[in-house]
């Protein structure tokens, strides 16, 4: 390939311009030569024999003939011609005249041949490059193998390098001395005594006696390449000229470009001679040629310019060798690597095998030995996975989906961060004892007047500012028996409980329940005896009834405050507030307002215009508009906040109840809410809680269906009847209370099943659900949409509207009774004594009897008693008096009776008569 590159470089440029330019010689003969290369390649080149121009020797000061411009004068009237090469036309066209058609055809043919050859050369070049790429891949594989071997022999080579270093220094000194004393011309024919590095190789060129000042032929420095247009003086003989060593840096072209001579621009004695190519040096095993163009002059003179491996490369090789040796040792010794395997709540067998770095078949076998038949794609629980991991000898680290809630509540506040906060007081007591009226007197409002039925059916939260500027937060709970969950929520979030007891009514069931809630929450209790303005009230009776439930008031020597008040007359309200503030001062209530908000959802509802609305009580931190909050299984950004009077707020401090808008859904009452830092965490927590809620509902549905034995028992006894109900309420607490109330109405024969319970208006989906399940729709303080009403009328779905909770219970109980099967009840008629037995051929034995009690009717049921023991039970076949059939025989009269299919009667037996009637179930 070097000869090919030289011949390509020696070719002149073909053109259709006429000849006649000044040249160094003319072509005497021309021809083509076919060159053959390895791998079946070949090339046809054009060979010309150039005649030397006669003339005297050129002086050193003159420009060579191959320069960019001819030195002779330009002929007059003739075009200026290039002297870069001889004429390629193959004809003897004279300078100055135009080409004839034959010459132009010849030149065109030569130009076409040149193009064809150029295309052939480019095709061969592409093949050569493809071959080089394949060779590079093989070389890379070979280098990788050499690196592996080098890593194994690193320790031995390190010792060998120390020994060879001394020998190399002595050898270099000897070579330097030999180079300084040896003749200059000797390297032309004899090889050098030592290995020549590739960076220090340079061709030996003849130099003229007087060196030109600006001649391009001489090298000005050790890294300069000779100029392409440089030519040696013709007068100086090449053999007699002294040789001079030069240094030339490695170029990007590789060995092929370094061996190729400079491009010839014209014929001449110097250009005809080819430099002696240096022998190719074998590539280093590492193959790192990034610094091939750099050379150290001293190293090049001493012959020690071969690159050595860097310390980092040696360290990497030793590290690889150490890892391989460690792995080989572990495999040979059978030492098992112990890993920390993360086991979630549910994991597939294949994933467990991957985490243990074990084969899936081995894990399946281990499960089979444990009695678990599972494939690779099946899911196993965390306990089974832990047993498998322990059997394989690894360490188990259990994780759970509930880990997403870790750190949600934040850190514990220090004493320096806590600031005083208003107390939270819950008003509890029996229904119609004046709880809401007492709050109205404190707030100067009329909430009780707007309540349906005169009873509170919602939980309310308000904040009152007393005369001294202090604030008190009140939570009003309903007193009806169905709102137990509301009262429990109120007791759980409060600091103290004000137990309202009517002076004229005393302690009632819900009063006792409120006492139990307060004890369970471990909060102080203040007794407010209401309605003291009525005549004939007895406070001692209330104190004694409270004493029965371990509530000892201060008037009886206890520690529970007792304050008699009147909500309608506004009596002693200031004393009640004073007692509340005194108790709050004793409790020393504090909270940290400089943190993320946390609290409890007191109530929630679905508003038609505003969407999901939640009433929350901030317990710690400060809730601000725009915060991201997670409330139960719902999340959202707080778009607006309203206080109990409907005023917009920008932030809510601790102990302040507010309504927030912007949640994704209606959260469950009693759930906690917390402000989080970003939306992704809020989504993650919400999705986890929703999955738990769905699993809980699915488990409850499965438990309601019962086991296979229960199903078979129902099939044997007949399908159990049920009353299906769809509940829609205005708030979440009411829906919860309705669900509890309706479930209590279930019986053994008829079960009340709540298909769906939610807040908001009745929609078409609710009607379709009720139609599919033959259910009724219970609407509590809500109405149906126009489309839902039309669909209900068209499909015949019953929608019942209520505003008082006990009316719901009464109506559903009637439905349950209507579903009950009628009851067969036995009615006693009377007794008769057998006085004589008559035998009749056609009728059998006839008993002559006297009615001793009650009445005997024809066709009634009878029991035959002998010595007080029932020996037969059946029906009365005939009843006669004398010879006539009668319908009944009353007390004191005699009659004749016969039993159906029974004749074993004796004198003295007693007959009990009864009839069966069907009555509605209760």
From TrEMBL:
InterPro entries assigned to the protein according to its UniProt record, in alphabetical order: EF-G-like_DII, IF2_assoc_dom_bac, IF2_II, IF2_N, P-loop_NTPase, Small_GTP-bd, T_Tr_GTP-bd_dom, TF_IF2_bacterial-like
Highest taxon above the source species: Bacteria
Record carries keyword Cytoplasm: yes
Biased composition (Basic and acidic residues): 109-129, 136-178, 248-260
Residues that hold GTP according to the record: 429-436, 476-480, 530-533
Localization (cell): Cytoplasm
Single GO molecular function: translation initiation factor activity
HAMAP family in the cross-refs: IF_2_B (MF_00100_B)
Matches recorded under NCBIfam families: IF-2, small_GTP
Annotated protein name in UniProt: Translation initiation factor IF-2
């Amino acid at each position: 390939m070097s000869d090919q590159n030289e011949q390509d470089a020696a070719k002149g440029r073909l053109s259709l311009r006429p000849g006649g330019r000044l040249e160094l010689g003319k072509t005497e003969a021309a021809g083509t030569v076919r060159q053959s290369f390895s791998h079946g390649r070949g090339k046809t080149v054009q060979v010309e024999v150039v005649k030397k121009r006669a003339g005297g020797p050129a002086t050193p000061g003159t420009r060579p003939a191959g320069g960019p411009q001819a030195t002779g004068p330009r002929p007059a009237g003739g075009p200026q011609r290039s002297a870069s090469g001889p004429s390629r036309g193959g004809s003897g066209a004279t300078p100055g005249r135009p080409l004839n058609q034959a010459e132009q055809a010849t030149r065109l043919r030569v130009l076409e041949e040149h193009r064809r050859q150029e295309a052939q050369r480019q095709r061969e070049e592409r093949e050569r490059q493809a071959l080089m790429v394949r060779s590079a891949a093989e070389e890379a594989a070979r280098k990788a193998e050499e690196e592996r071997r080098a890593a194994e022999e690193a320790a031995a080579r390190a010792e060998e390098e120390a020994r060879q270093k001394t020998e190399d220094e002595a050898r270099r000194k000897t070579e330097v001395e030999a180079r300084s004393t040896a003749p200059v011309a000797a390297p032309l024919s004899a090889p050098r005594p030592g290995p020549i590095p590739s960076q220090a190789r340079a061709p030996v060129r003849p130099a003229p006696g007087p060196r030109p000042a600006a001649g391009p032929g001489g090298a000005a420095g050790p890294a300069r390449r000779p100029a392409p247009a440089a030519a040696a003086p013709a007068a100086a003989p090449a053999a007699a000229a002294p040789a001079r060593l030069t240094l030339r840096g490695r170029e990007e072209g590789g060995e092929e470009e370094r061996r190729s001579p400079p491009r010839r621009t014209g014929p001449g004695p110097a250009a005809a001679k080819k430099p002696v190519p240096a022998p190719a040096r074998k590539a280093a095993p590492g193959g790192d040629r990034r610094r091939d163009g750099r050379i150290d002059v001293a190293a090049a003179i001493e012959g020690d310019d071969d690159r050595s491996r860097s310390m980092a490369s040696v360290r990497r090789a030793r590290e690889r060798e150490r890892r391989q040796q460690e792995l080989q040792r572990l495999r040979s010794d059978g030492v098992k690597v112990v890993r920390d395997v993360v086991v979630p709540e549910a994991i597939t067998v294949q994933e467990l095998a991957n985490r243990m770095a074990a084969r899936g078949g081995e894990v399946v076998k281990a499960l089979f030995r444990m009695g678990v038949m599972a494939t690779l794609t099946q899911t196993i629980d965390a306990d089974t996975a832990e047993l498998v991991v322990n059997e394989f000898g690894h360490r188990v680290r259990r994780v759970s989906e509930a880990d997403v809630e870790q750190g949600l509540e934040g850190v514990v506040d220090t004493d320096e961060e806590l600031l005083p906060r208003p107390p939270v007081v819950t008003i509890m007591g029996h229904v119609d004892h004046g709880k809401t009226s007492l709050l109205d007197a404190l707030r100067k409002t009329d909430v009780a007047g707007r309540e349906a039925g005169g009873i509170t059916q919602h939980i309310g939260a308000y904040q009152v500012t007393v005369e001294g500027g202090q604030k008190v937060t009140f939570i009003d709970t309903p007193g009806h028996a169905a709102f137990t969950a509301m009262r429990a929520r109120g007791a759980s979030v409060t600091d103290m409980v004000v137990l309202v007891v009517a002076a004229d009514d005393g302690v009632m069931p819900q009063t006792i329940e409120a006492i139990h809630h307060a004890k369970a929450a471990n909060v102080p209790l203040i007794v407010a005896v209401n309605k003291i303005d009525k005549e004939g009230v007895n406070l001692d009776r209330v104190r004694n009834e409270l004493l029965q439930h371990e509530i000892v008031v201060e008037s009886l020597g206890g520690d529970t405050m007792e304050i008699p008040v009147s909500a309608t007359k506004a009596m002693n309200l200031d004393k009640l507030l004073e007692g509340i503030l005194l108790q709050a001062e004793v409790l020393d209530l504090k909270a940290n307002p400089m943190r993320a908000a946390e609290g409890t959802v007191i109530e929630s509802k679905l508003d038609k215009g505003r969407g999901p609305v939640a009433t929350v009580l901030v317990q710690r931190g400060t809730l601000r508009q725009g915060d991201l909050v997670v409330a139960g299984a719902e999340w959202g950004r707080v778009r607006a906040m309203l206080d109990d009077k409907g005023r917009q707020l920008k932030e809510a401090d601790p102990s302040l109840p507010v309504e927030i808008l912007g949640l994704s859904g209606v959260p469950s009452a009693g759930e906690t809410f917390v402000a989080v830092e970003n939306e992704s965490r809020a989504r993650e927590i919400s999705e986890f809680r929703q999955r738990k809620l769905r699993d809980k509902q699915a488990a409850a549905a499965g438990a309601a269906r019962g086991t296979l034995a229960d199903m078979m028992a129902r099939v044997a006894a007949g399908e159990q009847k049920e009353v299906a109900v769809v509940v829609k309420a205005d708030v979440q607490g009411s829906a919860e209370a309705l669900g509890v109330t309706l479930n209590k109405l279930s019986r053994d024969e008829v079960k009340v099943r709540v298909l769906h319970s939610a807040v908001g208006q009745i929609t078409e989906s609710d009607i379709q659900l009720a139609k599919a399940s033959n259910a009724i729709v219970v609407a509590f303080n809500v109405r149906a949409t126009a489309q839902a009403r039309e669909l209900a009328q068209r499909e015949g779905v019953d929608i019942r509207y209520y505003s008082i909770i006990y009316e719901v219970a009464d109506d559903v109980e009637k439905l349950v009774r209507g579903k009950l099967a009628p009851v067969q009840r036995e009615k006693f008629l009377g007794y008769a004594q057998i006085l004589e037995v008559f035998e009749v051929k056609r009728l059998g034995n006839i008993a002559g009897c006297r009615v001793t009690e009650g009445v005997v009717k024809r066709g009634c049921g009878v029991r035959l008693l002998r010595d007080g023991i029932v020996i037969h039970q059946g029906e009365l076949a005939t009843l006669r008096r004398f010879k006539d059939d009668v319908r009944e025989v009353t007390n004191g009269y005699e009659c004749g009776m016969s039993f159906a299919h029974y004749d074993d009667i004796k004198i003295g037996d007693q007959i009990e008569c009864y009839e069966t009637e069907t009555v509605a179930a209760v």
